[in-house]
Amino acid sequence: MRKLFFTTGSPFARAVRIVLVEKGLEFERAETFTTPSVEERAKVTPTLQVPALVDGNLTLWDSSVIIDYLISSYPGAPAPEGMAPLAADYVRATEKWHDKLVLATLQTFGVSTTMVSQLQWSGVRHEDNGHATRCAIRNQHLLDWFETQLAGTDGAFVPGVVSAQDILLACICQFIETRPLRLSWRAPDRPKLAALVARMERRPAFQQEPALWWEPGVTYATAAEVEWARHKTIHAGPGFSEWASQ
Ligand SMILES: N[C@@H](CCC(=O)N[C@@H](CS)C(=O)NCC(=O)O)C(=O)O
Fold first, then answer.
1. Does the 93-208 domain belong in CATH 2.40.128.20?
2. For ligand 1, atom 15: residue with the closest CA
3. Is the Cβ atom of 44 under 6 angstroms away from ligand 1?
4. For 23-44, what is the mean pLDDT?
């Protein structure tokens, strides 16, 4: 049985979880809410990061390698009714360098975003720290660039299919939306990005593996916290204490 190591909040790990579900692949969930000790993580991967996937004799880490492996190694699964199928290729043979460039840029976007989040979690607001400010500015520049790379009114990196790029970008946007980071991916001049996220949100795999709201003090210790966190975003929904006291 394959086993995925992940933290609840990681957008990189969520993209892997979504690809596993899209492919119809069973997996054991080694899920933690917070970062485990160095010793614990080092047993699985030298990066000390999640996601990491153990599949038979193979141990893989880094979402880009894991998603490439899953898409390349396992046969396609039927698309949800009325929806585009998952791409059969991690990168298109005819657009290999462009697709790789977008995927690498998505990693930079994801790392800049999680850096802002990790620093805030450590008590450093991005507005108050030079490096974090740069990450937040990069975040907005990259969102504008992604908008130029999306095709059609339904916002897709690769027309007609759901690509790894689509999944990663939507996961990182929803990570932003479910963290009180004072960042936003939404903007009037990013309509294709909004269409992409809305299209991904409708997929059963995205709903089965939701992005959860997080703010200091939320531990997901109870089913009630998980239920509340599924529905809360920066734009809508009560705080947990307000919700819990209803
Ligand atoms: N490039 C890596 C990034 C993974 C990453 O940054 N994971 C974060 C969680 S979102 C992590 O494990 N952080 C804990 C740490 O760095 O100690 C990937 O795509 O898998």
1. no
2. 49
3. no
4. 91
